[in-house]
Amino acid sequence: MVVPELRPWRAARPRLARAAGAVRPRLTRAARALGPRVARFARATAPRLTGPKTWQYTAGAATAGLALAAGVVTAAGPWDSTGQRTAERDRAVALDHTGGADHGRGPGTAGPPRPAPSAGAVLAGLGGTSAPAPAAPRGEALAGVLGPLLEDPALGARHAASVVDLATGKRLYGTAVGTPLTPASTTKIATAVAALGALGPDHRLTTRTAYEADTGELVLVGGGDPTLTARKKAKGLASLRTLADKTATALKKRDVRRVTLSYDTSLYAGSEMHPIGVNDNLAPVTALMADEARTDGSTSGPAPRVSDPAADAARTFAGLLRAHGVKATPPGPSKATGRADTLATVASPPLSALVERMLTNSDNDLAEALLRHTAVATGKRADFAGGAAALAARLKHLGLPVKGSEFHDGSGLDRADRLTAGLLTGLLTTAADPDRPGLRAALTGLPVAHFTGTLADRYPDGAAGLVRAKTGTLTGVNTLAGTVVTRDGRTLGFAFLASETTDPQAAQAALDRLASALADCGCR
């Protein structure tokens, strides 16, 4: 699977303008449709709104990351970890002017903080409308639009479809809704919902150092954060350099200049190797790695990986300690004991930001990490089998239709995974539920058609900016699941799964036509 880098927003400026003009009317209608639901959400979560950044994130996320404001940047997404739309910040730079206050920084932003245009209070705008909500599409009309498109031979011998109204959760259309099929990377939606539900959106992954004075052993303890970075510019991520600096300072206060260095990966259990074997799409799954064990300087997509990420990270850490005047032995595996004192820690961005990164970039390393953290949080063994069991149990706990589903990993790279179209749209509906604001990142992280992530080069016309969806591609498998704003301003959730496809490009185009048809459909 090829995951393209996020393209510069400056290059996207003309498309932003075109998409804004096309989607503004239907975004306004969508706001009216979802107004009462958002108002309920606001009342339910009022005690949680503790500051401007929290307000922006919670309010914006309430309507599934789509149809939230009638301004230009609404269709551009995605959101950063503070809730500020990344597109708002970057568009100000692309237009060569600034405005508003600094709303915070996303983990992938370089350089000093950029002033961003202030977004209006979304909930206030929605709550002020008295216009009636547009009616949801009728099932018969949807069948007339989608049925012929689903007959496209490019979708293979087996396929399934489900369309739901996110405002009510009602299924509007379905075929083979309960048939388990190979989901490929749409599995990540399930991983996202399970992890957010088990850990909460504010949870962070912590890497630390522990020192045992009696033995002089310093242990680098992996916290299961694949985004831990050794690069000079951390860009909001947990920094191995910062950890080395803080650790060396703490050691010098103890008058320690030489240590026996070890590393601890005991947070995870079982095999590090995914069933697909050595593959550029995924590093060995271990609780300690830096920069996803990439050897080519990339930040997303397939890349060569080091064979032993933990040992490599520990060797890098030893070099960083040496630069701070602390000598370390060649590192080896160990485990921090209860007698060891924690010297320093660094923490990842919040889980909501990690989930968004995982979905936008189809990040397999993060997906497998979040699967194991879900296992740890729910008392399961932190390996492939335990993580899969924890994922299924968490979804069942949320009342989702898991019958027929089979999970074997968190990324969807395992061809033995099975999900149903009904489960995927159930996940989207649950993440859009105003009573579950902690799950919102499972929607706000979805790639935006023709703008971000794995949809950056798709939907050049019509549905650009209106479709937000997770893609899935394996040999003979093509899938798409996400949200779309219809011509009448209704926000729908959809899932299309195709198996036994023979031409991946043709299958992908057929899936895009299905989503585009929903965007263009009033279907009354």
Automatic annotation (TrEMBL):
Keywords: Carboxypeptidase, Hydrolase, Protease
Pfam families the record matches: Peptidase_S13
Disordered: region residues: 97-125
GO BP: any one term: peptidoglycan metabolic process
InterPro entries documented for this protein: Beta-lactam/transpept-like, Peptidase_S13
One annotated GO molecular function: serine-type carboxypeptidase activity
Top-level taxon of the source organism: Bacteria
Recorded family membership: Belongs to the peptidase S13 family.
PANTHER family xrefs: D-ALANYL-D-ALANINE CARBOXYPEPTIDASE (PTHR30023), PENICILLIN-SENSITIVE CARBOXYPEPTIDASE A (PTHR30023:SF0)
Name of the protein: D-alanyl-D-alanine carboxypeptidase
Organism of this sequence: Streptomyces fumanus
